[in-house]
Design a protein that fits this description.
Layout: H1 3-16, H2 18-24, H3 26-54, E1 61-65, E2 82-84, E3 86-87, H4 88-97, E4 101-106, E5 109-114, H5 123-134, E6 137-141, E7 146-150, H6 156-169, E8 172-176, H7 180-187, E9 191-193, E10 202-206, H8 214-217, E11 230-237, E12 242-243, E13 247-249, E14 265-274, E15 285-286, H9 294-303, E16 312-314, E17 317-321, H10 327-336, E18 340-342, H11 344-388, H12 390-398, H13 403-445, H14 448-456, H15 468-494, H16 498-504
Parallel strand pairs: 8-15, 10-14
Antiparallel strand pairs: 1-17, 1-18, 2-13, 3-16, 4-17, 5-8, 5-11, 6-7, 9-14, 11-14, 12-16
Helix pairs in contact: 3-11, 3-13, 3-15, 5-6, 11-15, 12-16, 13-15
């Protein structure tokens, strides 16, 4: 039989019994709709969450370490690793080794005393005096050439009061070293003042800084009033550092920040302010202070005056990648060079994708149930069709149609049920997806706070995602189940004896 003959017979069947074909496709319609819409919603939600995560500046940040055993994967480390201290020269070479790296800075913590109008002089000296008051005193005993400890005679409640008063008059700041681009992108939605990198003598600060109440310490009520203000600080503790190349056992090594050995006062001019009045910022500023990195090395050199910059080492460096989509490639290169990179964002995104993959399979399972159920309906419809068309089968065979031709006619009819069901199911899914996207947009546009928050996360729309593999995969499933359903009736039709069929008719 020719191809045109097959289509002619198929068209006649559709014209005469289109209602039966449509009802027989019902299970396929429901199955395809359930699979594509639930999977599309799962994929759309996953894409939205990943977009929100990647829209944050921290998504471009990779923590970099180097171990004495050249381990490259945190999740394959069984014992506590021993890190090798990274120096400025090595960090510079790493930055130049990959054009996708925007910046690399040592991860360091700088603790400062903030001088306030009520400090009454040097916070460094006040702290030293406070420690002498609350600590036991050791004095020489000349007669026996030994020392003796004189117990503290201050009442414990007095000690607590002294410590509280000192914390109020000389609050501490904890400033974390960071790349300026990362710092700016993290806070740009609440930024006031200069967007240029603060030079030495300048600083970008948070307005309130949580319970520090920085603005009150400087006597201002509005963020813009901080611009141009100056304040002084004294170094409190030395950033944790090691000799370049030293192997550091982080479990057995004291990583505490020792206090500086002498008073050093610096004055900074505020050039940028982060309006954090609605932010949940705790402590003494943290990453919401940005100052030139030379202050970090200056604090180290207070107690190590002869050390040079290239001799100062840190066990961790913060890598800022130029774009989010280059993070995986940069991490792969670090691993090839025997470094130990880690991206919290990459780990979170990987976990989210795994969780949504499981969710997608579970949701798609309901669609598979509908497809399986449709098999019985299609088998029933095709069997009835064979019984009704025995005369047609007998005539076709008497005119020379082969068994394979009869078999192909009914298989093609069965497959057409899958195509019809798939088409309708896909159209329903696309229509519902469009409605969901429209409703989401209307809700967001109707709420200014929602829109602002979502814009900050890079989310401008939401709806199911229908990638090509999902659409084509659902078509493959629909055809598989319908063709499978039509095999038995088609085989039965092809085995009809034309003489007996025509005699019975």
């Amino acid at each position: 039989m020719t191809l045109s003959s097959f289509f002619l017979i198929l068209r006649r069947q559709f014209q005469q019994k289109w209602g039966r074909f449509l009802l027989a496709s019902g299970g396929i319609i429901i199955g395809v709709w359930a699979i594509t819409l639930t999977t599309g919603l799962s994929l759309g939600l996953q894409d939205t969450i990943v977009t929100a995560i990647n829209s944050q500046a921290s998504a471009k940040q990779v923590s970099l370490y180097k171990t004495s055993t050249n381990q490259t994967d945190f999740f394959q480390i069984n014992d506590a690793p021993k890190f090798v201290a990274l120096g400025s020269n090595e960090i510079k070479l790493l930055k130049e080794s990959d054009p996708n790296i925007e910046d690399i800075v040592p991860s360091s913590l700088l603790n400062l005393y903030l001088q306030t109008p009520v400090s009454g002089g040097s916070c460094f000296n006040r702290d030293k005096l406070l420690q002498e008051q609350i600590s036991p005193s050791t004095i020489p005993v000349s007669s026996i050439n030994q020392t003796a400890t004189v117990p503290n005679t201050i009442d414990p409640t007095q000690i607590a009061d002294l410590q509280k008063k000192f914390a109020e008059e000389c609050p501490t700041l904890s400033v974390i070293s960071d790349s300026y681009s990362n710092f700016y992108l993290t806070n740009k939605t609440n930024w006031i003042g200069s967007t240029q990198v603060p030079k030495r003598g300048e600083v970008a600060v948070c307005f309130k800084c949580g319970n520090l109440d920085f603005n009150k310490k400087l006597g201002v009520e509005k963020p813009e009033d901080l611009i141009g203000k100056e304040f002084s600080f004294e170094f409190s503790r030395v950033p944790t550092n090691y000799e370049v190349g030293k192997v550091v056992d982080v479990v057995n090594t004291d990583r505490g920040n020792p206090k500086v050995g002498k008073q050093v006062t610096e004055t900074l001019k505020i050039v940028s302010v982060i309006d954090d009045r609605k932010a949940n910022t705790f402590g003494g500023g943290g990453t919401n202070f940005f100052m030139d990195y030379s202050y970090f090395t200056q604090a180290i050199k207070i107690d190590k005056p002869n050390i040079t910059d290239d001799q100062i080492g840190f066990i961790e460096a913060s890598v800022i990648v130029k774009s989010y989509d280059k993070v995986d490639g940069v991490i792969a290169k670090f691993k090839e060079a025997k470094y130990l990179p880690f991206s919290i964002t990459q780990t979170i995104v990987s976990g989210i994708k795994t969780a949504f993959s499981v969710l997608t399979v579970v949701l798609a399972g309901f669609g598979f149930i509908a497809l399986i159920a449709s098999v019985f309906g299609i088998v029933n419809v095709m069997t009835i069709s064979v019984l009704e068309r025995q005369k047609e089968i007998g005539i076709l065979k008497s005119l020379g149609a082969r068994d394979t031709d009869i078999f192909s006619i009914f298989v093609i009819e069965s497959a057409s049920l899958g195509i019809i069901g798939w088409t309708i199911g896909i159209l329903i899914s696309l229509g519902m997806g469009s409605i969901i996207g429209t409703v989401f947009t209307a809700l967001v546009n109707g709420n200014a706070e929602w829109k602002t928050n979502l814009d900050a996360l890079g989310i401008t729309s939401f709806g199911p995602s229908f990638p090509a593999w999902l659409v084509l995969g659902s078509l493959g499933l629909a055809l598989f189940f319908t063709v499978l359903s039509g095999v038995f009736p088609s085989f039965k039709a092809s085995r009809q004896n034309p003489v007996e069929v025509l005699r019975s008719e």
